[in-house]
Amino acid sequence: MDNAIEVPFNRPCLAGQEMNYIAQAVANGHSSAKGPFTERAEHLLTERLNAEGVLLTTSCTDALEMAAMMVEIGPGDVVIVPSFTFSSTATAFARQGAKLRFCDIRKPDLGLDPDDVEASMDDRVKAIVTVHYAGVASDVTRLQAIAQRFGVPLIEDNAHGLFADHDGKQLGSFGRFSTLSFHETKNFICGEGGALVVNNEGDLEAAHILLDKGTNRRQFLDGLADKYTWHGHGSSFGLSDLLAAFLLAQLERADEIQSKRRKIHGKYTELLMPHTERLALTLPYHHQGDKPADHMFYVLLPSAAIRGEVIKLMRSAGVQPTFHYVPLHSAPGASELADSDRHLPVTDDISGRLLRMPFFNELTEHEQERVALALVEAVEASILSTAT
Ligand SMILES: Cc1ncc(COP(=O)(O)O)c(C=O)c1O
Asked: Closest residue (by CA) to atom 7 of ligand 1?
């Protein structure tokens, strides 16, 4: 039986103005999508990301579904996605009728491997979707070049990487579209929420129509159309203004939140670095000169065989680590939705050895010391018990 968990994996943290803004949103009488708080949050994100537009959605999953619809994926098409990701990266394209071609990730950034993507391209491939795992850039410059050469769109599932930079450019600005998550486990939260980032001006109007149940409601409200009519495909993707109010309170404190997370990431590195060689632990990586988003802190254990025991021992020390993605290419869903069987050795290796540490804005140094000690002791004990 586990001891009580004293250092949980996640503790959703408030930035200060959330309740005040939500109260204002209630008093405003506009609690549905596209209200005044939505406008302010979308404006803030559009400015900071230097995007053509940002549309708040009910989740990153919904934003990915919008991206799949926007690039007109359909039956007979194939979409390249990493196997090492959340199911939504794949299902958004599969629900449009496409088959998924799972590609491997590479070490040390754990992003989509451009060599595998290049070798997997053919004329059925109609889009490439990359994930910036943990807020560390995948090789998005090369992926963008491959996508351009084959004339297909690149989409960045940037659920982890808001406000990160790669090669001096913001993550999420390389693809035709990128998507964000504001789920309670992310850097910026509103319970459940997301956004579609539109990087081409020509896509903006169609994206609003998709979000507005297939209607030109936005043009109508802006006085640009005299009738409010149905134009085609769409759904109800918009975030309630109550949640946009919550989100705005977080986004307005973005620099403070990011600097707290930077500090927590640095502290874990400082605490664990002295043990990496002796215990064969690998700590997170980012490219020289890049600014990562510090979405999480993980360690790669020396072997997959000890992970279950390490988790058990850490939990009995009151600390809650967690594993992450189970590879999609070998999951039950792949038998119906993948276009071919793939052998993805890096994905299999990494997903078996990866362990995420508790990480949230208000995590204290004392809690981090407890986590580091619990990890080191658990790894030592697990290595000993597998050796005997
Ligand atoms: C890479 C990635 N994409 C998409 C999602 C889905 O995000 P949401 O819960 O906002 O739909 C997640 C969830 O954690 C994720 O890790």
From this structure: 60
